[in-house]
Amino acid sequence: MKAIMIESYGGPEVLQRREVPAPEPGPGDIVVKVAFAGINFMDVHTRQGKYAMSTTYPVRLPCTLGMEGAGEVVHVGSEVSRFAPGDRVAWCIAWGSYAEYARVPAGLAVRLPDDIAYDQAAASLFQGSTAHYLLNEVARLHAGQACLVHAASGNIGQLLVQMAKAAGVTVFATGSSPEKCAVAHRLGADHAMLYDHGRFADAIREATQGRGVDVVFDSVGKATLRDSFRATRKRGLVINYGNVSGSVDDLDPMELGESGSLFLTRPRLADHMSDPETVQRRADDIFAALASKQIHIPIANRYGFDDVEQAHAMIEQRQQIGKSVLSIAV
Ligand SMILES: NC(=O)c1ccc[n+]([C@@H]2O[C@H](COP(=O)([O-])OP(=O)(O)OC[C@H]3O[C@@H](n4cnc5c(N)ncnc54)[C@H](OP(=O)(O)O)[C@@H]3O)[C@@H](O)[C@H]2O)c1
Questions:
Q1: Where does this protein have coiled-coil stretches (predicted)?
Q2: Which residue in 9, 33, 105, 270 could disulfide with 49, CB within 3.0 to 4.6 Å?
């Protein structure tokens, strides 16, 4: 079968097209004929080697890239009773979706409703599950509160804005260009602003009469985290769920005290997807929100096997707005 693999870490040039044997299922796995794979920042991080030492995401070389996809079950392992060949499924945080067939632990796969197409599923599950747990289980925001969503035109950012607004929360949003701020506005953000070298924190203090927001969703990391502290109210929560600009590696916990006894967390999706019921419940919520048009996840770009380098470059160069998928069954 065709697969896109990495055999060393590095830039887009390490992406290799390979002919490899199709996977066999282990006892607890299913094998899926992949229709579409999601293309994500996490694929870029994987390619760069950010998970080389991770125990949460034990991705090791050589590795077939892609950790989100949708397609039809073709084989099930001897211990799998929840799925059968022919089932329509999607999954995330199991690597190997940039390929014609993928082996997926059954506990990470979800059943698709008939009205959710494969491309929509492959565009929705990873960021949808992430925004879902961040909002409902980490932030636990409720109507009348205020939050800040950084990189609000990013895939998770867009969902956080939409879900927070649906929960009755006042949303401040940031972006790197007026065009990206306009995206956040269109999705419902009450205030959208440029990072402006950290001055977003001053603007938020002013708009909240000096109080600050209850929760900050910060996926940017090094470039914003300390100013995120300044934008947060006393005893508020800063959720650093990504590090697209690099990791903060010199933080003294005393800074949290000085910033108003803040809470800082660095959560990971894997720790919020630990049983099949939770995985399916999150997916069902996302698919229902899509079907009722409470959230929108438009597909911005569709790539073929020969265009993956271009897709990764778009993400790294911050040119992408919206979700990209890789068409496999073409
Ligand atoms: N913790 C978790 O559970 C979890 C789960 C899923 C993903 N993540 C992480 O969350 C982050 C966002 O994921 P996503 O899928 O929403 O990504 P995305 O759609 O590619 O959006 C990333 C956004 O980050 C902003 N950005 C700021 N500095 C950047 C830089 N130096 N290079 C590139 N982009 C930069 C860009 O918006 P502006 O140009 O407006 O700044 C960009 O649109 C990633 O780090 C991903 O690995 C974490």
A1: none
A2: 9
For the record, the structure tokens of 156 come out as 């998770």
Kindly report whether the global pTM for this prediction surpasses the value 0.90.
Answer: yes
For residue 130, tell me if it sits in a domain. Answer: no
CA of 151 to the centre of ligand 1 (A): 7
Residue 214, token pair as written in the block: 């209850």
Q: b/e for 266-278, b at 16 or more Cβ within 10 A?
A: ebebeebbeeeee
Residue 114 belongs to domain with CATH number: 3.90.180.10
Distance 75 CA to ligand 1 centre (A): 34
Q: How far apart are CA 214 and CA 68, in angstroms?
A: 32
Write the pLDDT tens digit of every residue in 149-159. Answer: 999 999 999 99
Q: Are residues 237 and 152 in the same domain?
A: yes
How far is 63 from 85, CA to CA, in rounded Å? 25
Cα separation, 100 vs 84, whole angstroms: 19
- pLDDT per position as a tens digit, 30-43: 999 999 999 999 99
Question: Which ligand 1 atom sits closest to the C-alpha of 323?
Answer: 19
- Can you read off the two tokens belonging to residue 89? 């499924």
Number of domains forming the structure of the chain = 2
**Whole-angstrom Cα distance, residue 63 to residue 59?**
7
Q: Write the DSSP symbol of residue 141.
A: -
CB distance 217 to 241 below 8 Å: yes
Q: Do 253 and 174 belong to one domain?
A: yes
Establish if 147 belongs to a structural domain: yes
Model confidence pLDDT, tens digit, residues 96-141: 999 999 999 999 999 999 999 999 999 999 999 999 999 999 999 9
SS3 call for 276: helix
Residue range 69-92: mean pLDDT, rounded: 98
